[in-house]
Amino acid sequence: xxxxxxxxxxxxxxxxxxxxxxxxxxxxxxxxxxxxxxxxxxxxxxxxxxxxxxxxxxxxxxxxxxxxxxxxxxxxxxxxxxxxxxxxxxxxxxxxxxxxxxxxxxxxxxxxxxxxxxxxxxxxxxxxxxxxxxxxxxxxxxxxxxxxxxxxxxxxxxxxxxxxxxxxxxxxxxxxxxxxxxxxxxxxxxxxxxxxxxxxxxxxxxxxxxxxxxxxxxxxxxxxxxxxxxxxxxxxxxxxxxxxxxxxxxxxxxxxxxxxxxxxxxxxxxxxxxxxxxxxxxxxxxxxxxxxxxxxxxxxxxxxxxxxxxxxxxxxxxxxxxxxxxxxxxxxxxxxxxxxxxxxxxxxxxxxxxxxxxxxxxxxxxx
Length: 367
Ligand code: SF4
Ligand code: SF4
Hints:
alpha/beta, ten-stranded mixed sheet, 10 strands, disordered N terminus, binds iron/sulfur cluster
């Protein structure tokens, strides 16, 4: 097994800039973290955007993921995407798929490294409800089918909340044996998503079990499913759910977040207090220097954790959204709290929690 130090230095190399090119959106998702819908009044113009592509390249990033809002509704999205390819950066496009067919010919010319589509339900009823658009499910599935027929590299992103927790197995059945990468993430209470619809810690652990069981059951080729950054760290029992070993939040390191008005954050899931500057007034290089020296004060459970130096409190965006490090969405913390002698009677607590999780898992897998 490689030692952790080279791994860390490898992972903190600039890798992907996630760029919200517009806040405008043709969907009305109830879980939207950026309250997208209307265009920001001060979005970067085409010239500023093309210059920014070159700055991203000069800062050493290997790729750019275009998202929104909905990136494909911005009039000059194709010019920006072309500039990304011209600068030999990997191009990903994160889209809701609603107007993808209208843009298929442009996408074919661009040859993006990946097109990621959001799929939040295994049925039209749930997906359309979450997206706030009747017919969205059909359009997204049609977009996925067209992309696959044209041999694009396709991935699907599912954000899990109390509304769609029991849809995971249905989504799995839609994706199985289709060579579609599936990223599962938790929906957190930012933007317009209400706190009461976020999953409980038991439900969070059950989602992790769902990923672990399916990873064991199917080869990566049949079902390339992974847990996103927010899905648990350093479990004592479950295998790593992500693509690589967790070495702490990558905000401002290998990950970079760009808002449509040029504000720069380490990661778009972080709150506005993490904005390091704006590219209209400062260079990207100097903003990055500032972001990389920002220290996070951990407290509560995370501060006392035995792997805190490696983990650094897990996904910062999630921790800030749920406003605590005390009871983190963390596999290790959940396991430790369950088996801790501080939570006697152990057996009663364990039995009731494990039976709750077993029943939830059964429902997810077989509903
Ligand atoms: S308790 Fe906090 S620091 Fe420890 S593994 Fe979990 S998220 Fe990381
Ligand atoms: S805030 Fe979360 S999603 Fe963003 S880079 Fe950090 S770990 Fe990843």
